[in-house]
């Protein structure tokens, strides 16, 4: 029997996705550049191995596949993807399909889709980490309709399930799927950073031990904040290091890595003129975190930042409210960015579908995304913060965000993502801002011109300072 689908790249994601595909009943062929890795994988596959054909060469791999061939790549983003496509192309026939399941730059995917003929190319954002790949990821597809139609049944059978709805969708042409995955990761950065900031308040402001925080996060996970990230935060806080017996959090260095998707999201937002302050703050925080030597010198020079707070000043309810408001604002920024990209690239991204397929399987899955899906379905052109449900949450909780940010700031505890979300909110709801000063300055030094409130039909006006 020939394989229904092929998978190249047996790293963590590739192995888990392959097992998921085989488990759902699809005969599969696999290939990995290092053959030893393929043998090791076949050993791990257990009973599923009977549905998997291991190939030692790319030629054998291609021959093992039904026509038209469907090949999922799970190789590192960038040059390795182009190299793999180049190696495959001479072995494929017109109408065969290559699906790139890595975290590729959406512009690369745009180019690969455009250059693919006579074969087809599809960019597939896959979220959910190793466990998600094995048990059901959330998948964001971009590329030609015909490409998606070729793999929709397989993708729907392996995707996470939310109330009977598979968490996979064709979101647009070209690089649209990878674009949405990039923004997913940007939002993931902001969500994680805000949780880390509240962890800092609990640890440095209230002097709590990690195990004392675990039940707080666990309680929050029962309410509006119910989400995978809060759930794992509670578990992380409760975990001890098997070597030393200390809390795991206390032995992990505070230097965060990043593969780049968060930074890409920020750069893209800047280019489109879309405000994305919560993600910007999160990327900045990761960058600063890696500057350990500088932070040590500055602490020696200026003294440590955080000072403790009176225990009753900062309540659990206040911090929960801050996270709720911060989260609504960060996600609203992310959805606005996707709306801007959809217009700018002419992608017609179905935003309610994006929220729907993020409800399960992906790293940012949460109860709130279900409400976002409903709010966007009702009016997908309306900003999320204006949707009645989210406007209500913000009205109820922005005070808590303000109190939390004020207390943190007064005590030298850095909360860059929460405070940037608050500043965004305050700017958004102020009709008379301060950019009149910027316009005056620009006109003063460069005669850049401004508009007047009392003469709305005229532009390019100047002040009496031009001399
Ligand atoms: C997911 C994750 C996953 C991953 C990224 C971001 O949705 O499953 O977003 O794609 O964690 O690689 O990683 P960095 O934090 O290293 O940028």
Could you give a quick summary of the protein structure above?
NADP(+) binds at residues 9-14, 32-34, 75-77, 103. With 467 residues, the protein is of the alpha/beta class. It has helices at residues 12-23, 35-44, 58-63, 79-88, 106-115, 129-135, 145-158, 176-205, 210-220, 228-237, 248-251, 261-272, 277-289, 292-302, 316-345, 351-357, 367-378, 388-410, 416-428, 435-446; strands at residues 5-8, 28-31, 52-55, 70-73, 97-100, 120-127, 138-142, 161-162, 165-166, 168-172.
Tell me what the structure shows:
This protein is of the alpha/beta class. The chain folds into 3 domains: 5-174, Rossmann fold; 182-428, N-(1-d-carboxylethyl)-l-norvaline Dehydrogenase, domain 2; 437-466, no CATH class. It is 55% helix and 9% strand. It is built from 20 helices and 10 strands. It has helices spanning 12-23, 35-44, 58-63, 79-88, 106-115, 129-135, 145-158, 176-205, 210-220, 228-237, 248-251, 261-272, 277-289, 292-302, 316-345, 351-357, 367-378, 388-410, 416-428, 435-446, and strands at residues 5-8, 28-31, 52-55, 70-73, 97-100, 120-127, 138-142, 161-162, 165-166, 168-172. The strands form 2 sheets. It has an 8-stranded mixed β-sheet, with helices on both faces. It has a two-stranded antiparallel sheet with strand order 8-9. Strand 2, helix 2 (35-44) and strand 3 (52-55) form a beta-alpha-beta unit. Helix 15 crosses helix 19 (416-428). The longest helix is centred in the middle third of the chain and has 30 residues, at 176-205. The chain is globular. The structure holds 6-phosphogluconic acid. 6-phosphogluconic acid binds at residues 103, 127-129, 185, 188, 257-259, 261-262, 362-363. Its EC number is 1.1.1.44. This is 6-phosphogluconate dehydrogenase, decarboxylating. Belongs to the 6-phosphogluconate dehydrogenase family. It is an enzyme of class 1 (oxidoreductase). One of its GO terms (biological process) is D-gluconate metabolic process.
């Amino acid at each position: 029997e020939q394989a229904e689908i092929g998978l190249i790249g047996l790293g963590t994601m590739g192995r888990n996705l392959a097992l998921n595909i085989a488990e759902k009943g699809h005969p599969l062929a696999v290939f990995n550049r290092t053959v030893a890795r393929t043998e090791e994988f076949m050993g791990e596959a257990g009973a599923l191995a009977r549905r998997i054909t291991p190939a030692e060469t790319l030629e054998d791999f291609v021959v093992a596949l039904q026509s038209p061939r469907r090949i999922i790549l799970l190789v590192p983003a960038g040059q390795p993807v182009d190299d793999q496509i180049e190696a495959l192309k001479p072995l494929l026939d017109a109408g065969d399909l290559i699906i790139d399941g890595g975290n590729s730059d959406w512009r690369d995917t745009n180019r690969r889709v455009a250059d693919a003929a006579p074969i087809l190319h599809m960019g597939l954002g896959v979220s959910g980490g190793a466990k998600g790949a094995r048990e059901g990821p959330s998948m964001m597809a971009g590329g030609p309709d015909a490409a998606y139609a070729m793999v929709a049944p397989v993708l729907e059978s392996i995707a996470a399930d939310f109330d009977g709805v598979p968490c996979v969708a064709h979101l647009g042409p070209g690089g649209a799927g990878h674009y949405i995955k990039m923004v997913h990761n940007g939002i993931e950065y902001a969500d994680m950073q805000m949780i880390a900031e509240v962890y800092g308040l609990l640890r440095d402001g209230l002097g709590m031990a990690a195990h004392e925080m675990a039940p707080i996060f666990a309680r929050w996970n029962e309410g509006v904040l119910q989400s995978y990230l809060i759930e794992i935060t509670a578990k992380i806080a409760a975990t001890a290091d098997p070597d030393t017996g200390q809390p795991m959090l206390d032995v992990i260095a505070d230097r965060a890595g990043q593969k780049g998707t968060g930074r890409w999201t920020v750069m893209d937002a800047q280019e489109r003129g879309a405000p994305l302050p919560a993600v910007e703050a999160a990327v900045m925080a990761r960058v600063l975190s890696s500057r350990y030597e500088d932070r040590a010198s500055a602490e020696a020079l200026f003294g440590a930042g955080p000072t403790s707070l009176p225990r009753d000043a900062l309540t659990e309810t206040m911090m929960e409210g801050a996270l709720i408001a911060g989260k609504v604002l960060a996600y609203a920024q992310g959805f606005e960015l996707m709306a801007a990209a959809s217009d700018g690239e002419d992608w017609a991204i179905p935003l309610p579908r994006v929220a729907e397929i993020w409800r399960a399987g992906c790293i940012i899955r949460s109860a709130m995304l279900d409400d976002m899906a409903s709010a966007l379905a009702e009016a997908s052109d309306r900003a999320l913060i204006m949707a009645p449900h989210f406007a209500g949450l913000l009205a109820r909780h922005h005070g808590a965000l303000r109190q939390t940010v004020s207390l943190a700031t007064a005590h030298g505890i850095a909360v860059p993502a929460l405070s940037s979300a608050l500043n965004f909110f305050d700017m958004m709801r102020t009709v008379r801002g301060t950019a009149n000063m910027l316009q005056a300055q620009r006109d003063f030094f460069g005669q850049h011109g401004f508009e007047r409130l009392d003469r709305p039909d005229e532009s390019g006006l100047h002040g009496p300072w031009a001399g």
